[in-house]
Amino acid sequence: MDFDPTLLRTFVAVVDTGSFTRAARRQHITQSAVSHQVRRLEEQAGRRLLCRTTRSLTLSADGEEFLRHARQILRALDALALRFRPSTLSGKVRFGAPENFMGGRLPRLLARYARAFPAVRLDVSISANLDLPAMIEAEELDLAIVISLHDPAGGAAGQVLRRTRLAWVAAENFEPPAAGPLPFAFFPPPCVHRQAGMRAIEEAGIDGHVVFTSHSHEGIHAAVTAGLAITAIALDDIGPGMKVIDGRHGLPSLPGMDYRLVWSEAGRTPAAIAFGELICETQTPSPVRTNATPDSRDLTAGPARDGSTPRTATRTASSGPA
């Protein structure tokens, strides 16, 4: 048996208002139409749902049970209508993000937004080496996910979507050169990983140089897993064949890192706001991970447990980070 949602809404209106007259006003129909619809619903149900006298209007025992189900049905119908309501949003949303931020979730996010807002054009820039803050400042993007070093004072702009930590990483079988500087692989500037890593190398007085540069995570990962170099990456991005080597070879601990959602000055259009809300729904801020791999035993600065000593920079024209 299929109950007409119109009859269900009228029945609920009668119960909520306690009067056929007030229910008629709420439903924008006549009082006689309310009486007719309630009678039709009772005929469909085969039960008396309302006990009506000249002075009172109450639910029968069957009416109480029927009301509970009617409310559930109407809530579900309202949710369904809201979910598939045609969108009035249109225009263009310009979005930028690091290539490692969402991984396999990005296609699903884009597909979900396109289904919900088919009249909106998405202009998406994904790269490991875009200067996203500068693009936001120049109004080239409406919103972006930017990487920044953790700011304990909370002065950094934007909403934190995810929090992680940078770590020194090398191949599982990495062997440092017997003599000479430590080899490093970094993204080209501007890059938070590179900035934090180079600053740490210089402040620790480590003799090192950049032997490999790549614009992609795949390139950096290839250099690391081949044993060519050490790099600084987020704990979340450590792949197979890599291990954390914080504290070894004199390498100090690296700072925490945030992924933040930021907006341009004029970027908060209705379409962009809807996209930003969808991004936030898919992200849960997480605490900093402290054990990325089984080999990440030493995550603090200081002498390595294997007995190796820090490499001291030789202050010559050719030494120091490249």
Unreliable stretches: 285-322
- Largest pleated sheet: 7 strands, mixed
Could you say which structural class the secondary elements and strand pairing correspond to?
Answer: alpha/beta
N- to C-terminal separation?
Answer: 77 Å
> Which sequence of SSEs, written as H and E, runs from N to C?
HHHEEHEHEHEEEHEHEEEH
Strand content: 15-25%
Shape call: elongated
Helix content: 25-40%
Helix count from the secondary structure assignment? 9
Mean pLDDT: 83
Cα-based radius of gyration, to the nearest Å: 31 Å
Number of strands: 11
Structure overview:
The protein has 9 helices and 11 strands. It is α/β, with parallel strands linked by helices. The strands form 3 sheets. Strands 3, 4, 5, 6, 9, 10 and 11 form a 7-stranded mixed β-sheet that branches. Strand 7 (182-186), helix 7 and strand 8 form a beta-alpha-beta unit. Helix 1 (5-17) packs across helix 2 (20-27), helix 1 crosses helix 3 (31-45) and helix 1 (5-17) crosses helix 4. It starts with a helix and ends in a 41-residue tail after the last helix.
